[in-house]
Amino acid sequence: MDNVIVLDFGGQYTHLIARRVRDLGVFSEIYPFNVEIDKLKMLFPKGIILSGGPSSVYEKNSPKLPEAFFDYVKAANIPILGICYGFHLIIHQLGGKIEPHKQKEYGRTELEILKSGILLDSLENKEIVWMSHGDRVKTMPKDFEILAKTETCPIATYGNEALRMYGVQFHPEVVHTPKGNVILNNFLSKIANAKKEWKLEDWINKAIEKIRDIVGPDKKVILGLSGGVDSSVTAALMHKSIGDRLHSIFVNNGVLRKNEEIQVQQSFRDDLQFQNFHYVDAQQLFMEKLKGIEDPEEKRRIIGHTFIEVFENKTIELEKEYPDIEFLAQGTIYPDRVETSATSNASARIKSHHNLTLPDDMTLKVIEPLRDLYKDEVRRIGLKLGVPKEIINRHPFPGPGLAVRIIGAIDKEKLDILRDADEILIEEIKKAGVYEKLWQAFCVFLPLKTVGIMGDYRTYEYICAIRVVESLDAMTANFAKLDMDLLEKIGTRIINEVKGINRVVYDISNKPPSTIEYE
Ligand code: XMP
Asked: How far is the CA of 352 from the centre of ligand 1 (A)?
């Protein structure tokens, strides 16, 4: 299949570039900027995109491409598109000059097209683009032409048709560049001539065949189902491939949302007709281990370890009954595996909590059928496989669940209070039609008692914080500016209906500097 490679220079949008390319129908993968040239050659890329990045090319230790890279792409006639840092790097390494600019350009800017060439084909003379940089191109090497400028940036797009090298100072991959997809599509189709072969229907059929091939006609597979999108879609795909030779294990760890265990069982047992869905109620064990534990990291550690213990015990039990169990399916997705320089910390952390870490002595072979997919692709595949919409569109939920949404030690009383409040919040947000526009909406239990008045009585009860954020990838997030009447309704209902809460506050912090979760 034709593919276009993205080389990562640490930009925050690197994954977004690859996703856009895939959305345009061309398969794309990310590699670090210092990938070995021999490895790159083996991928037979139709084109290469150099990502943005936080460094400046003239800094001594900033990431550079080896001579051999330019030798290879020139010899093989592979087209290159540089974005932001990549835009500077091509010029810098081929003998032009980049300099710092006193006026940093950030945000919406008007781009004036001087010569459209192939890259800017079909654009108007003036287009809005998204800039984010402090450097600019001062002089260009021979045969490079200026294609567009902005008010403060005389060289905002360039091209060298003979070398097939192009660069844009702005970010075509972000939605704030409305015609960004036209530019990327020009690069993919008209410059790189990449065939649009990346189709999810084909992917599903091939994945099913491949799974059948790997598992064979009679072996069985174990899977830890959390009810989240990735593990649910993995389960649906595996079930479609091997039917009831899939054994799914769902562990109730006591820190799930209200009725979550019932909904997950309904979806898989009833809607998707899983015969071998194994529900393990381990609430009591988790509660005993978490008793009196206040430290958030300790809570996470206990939940992670206890989960593995429970999962392992259930697997051993099943292996006795079904000796043909040979595989473990996991819901790893592409961003979990390929950490770009910009996302490494956050995704590593999320991953370690979402996915099972296998004990060393477990001899099952791992299958990760979604390992090359992005989340939105996983969602689309899930819908095609009949996974209920409520699961597909569900907000992310941390592995340690409600335990990190109760400050300090947890107990059943606090958990029940939080579950009831959270249910009201989600119900109202769904009713208002905004749930799917939000990254996450949840309640947090603050173990502080304040005074209130209900009827003739003075109350002394806990505080519930409401956290609702908008985000693209959880790296940054803004609190959602929800309608005040909606907030009032939610607050009133929680105070009236949830025993134990007499005050509701709305969290107006953004990330950074705050985080999305509280612990
Ligand atoms: P923070 O709080 O770091 O959260 O802004 C970023 C995203 O990660 C999720 N998150 C977690 N997910 N285990 C998880 O599986 C965790 O321990 C954890 N902590 C945070 C969080 O819900 C948000 O989407």
From this structure: 10
